[in-house]
Amino acid sequence: MQNRPYRSALYIPGSKDRALEKARGLPVDVILFDLEDAVAPDAKIAARDTLHVALADGGYGQRLRIVRINGLDTEWGRADAAAVAAMDCDAILLPKVNGTEDVDALAALVPDKPIWAMMETPQGILNAAQIANHPRIAGFVLGTNDLAKDLNSRTRAALTTSLQLCVLAARAAGIVALDGVYNAFKDEDGLRAECTEGRDMGFDGKTLIHPAQVAITNEIFGPTAEEIDLARRQIAAFEAAEAEGQGVAVVDGRIVENLHIVTARATLAKAEAIAALETT
Fold this sequence. Notes:
This protein is of the alpha/beta class. It has 2 domains: about 210 residues, TIM Barrel (Alpha-Beta Barrel); about 55 residues. About 50% of the residues lie in helices and about 15% in strands. The chain is built from 12 helices and 10 strands. The strands form 2 sheets. It has an 8-stranded parallel barrel with strand order 1-2-3-4-5-6-7-8, surrounded by 5 helices. A two-stranded antiparallel sheet has the order 9-10. It is globular. The chain starts with 7 loop residues before the first strand and ends with a helix.
């Protein structure tokens, strides 16, 4: 689907049949099927088969299906990669990517699926541009909990540089960037504030740990009715100005140039893609 939305990306444990079934009916844009943190060590091997069956059964519509494996330096990682290579999913998510050599290692094991990188280590953040430009990388997922631990930081503000570096690298490489999770899943005001901050930074969406977080996240990362209306008026005014041989238009007292029209058309395309996704 062109202009695919990535507003909400919900982690779902790959070991739990009930959660995998429930995910089929959730209004999320991306499902992050997790074989790593959400699965206990003694359930990791069985989780591969559970997830394989769930994905084969389908029912997830047009949602992007990404499977997060365990790190290749763990006892489960390489077998996870081999299992995911045979699963009916859209991409594979590699945790704790420090550099392009980590991506190369996974690419050799899974030759035909897009790779997403968990950006959650200081070394990975410093190498964000090189990782983003790897030919197999399709997206970044920020692992803000692990990053904060490694940085010994206690506030979201302390992660600002890391977040912005990842957005810059993603935009330069033309890939997707998803913000990290908000841990207090019952705190709607806090979630709304952090979603707004992430959206203002330029992230495409936010990763989530609970279905209760989906509605607010979709709202914040989706275009508003006012933004859609403005986009339509900007396009109409600019096209009218062009027809009269002018290079700029004025809408609501503001200059509208071609760069604004690129954004306006992207806004409308995103709104249409969201509508299409929500009807499936």
